[in-house]
Amino acid sequence: MAIQLKRIYEEADEKDGYRILVDGVWPRGIAKDKAKVDEWNRDVAPSKELRQWFSHDPEKFDEFKEKYKQELQQNNEQAEALDQLKKTVHEQNKQVTLVFAAKEETYNHARVLKEILDRQPKES
Asked: Contact, 118 vs 26, CB < 8 A?
């Protein structure tokens, strides 16, 4: 099963499959019915402090990625949210799309989550 990334401001598509919003706060200017998300996993997002420090600066991305992965392991709420995300992805028998609001499509936390999920062993 494939995992893709998509900005919430892009039109939802049938090919998106199961849509999971992975931001900690609801995206500005998007009505909940227009978002067409199947699930909102807000606790898997990076902490406010980490997000503000990073500020989607490409030069900080590698360090952000490591700090974010540490948060996902060390913060109980984030660790549980990541486990739930992994479980949801494995339970889906179709495409899964991680939806995010950041303007920066290359250097963001959703990309880190996709990388983590793509490295998970496939359950049979």
From this structure: no
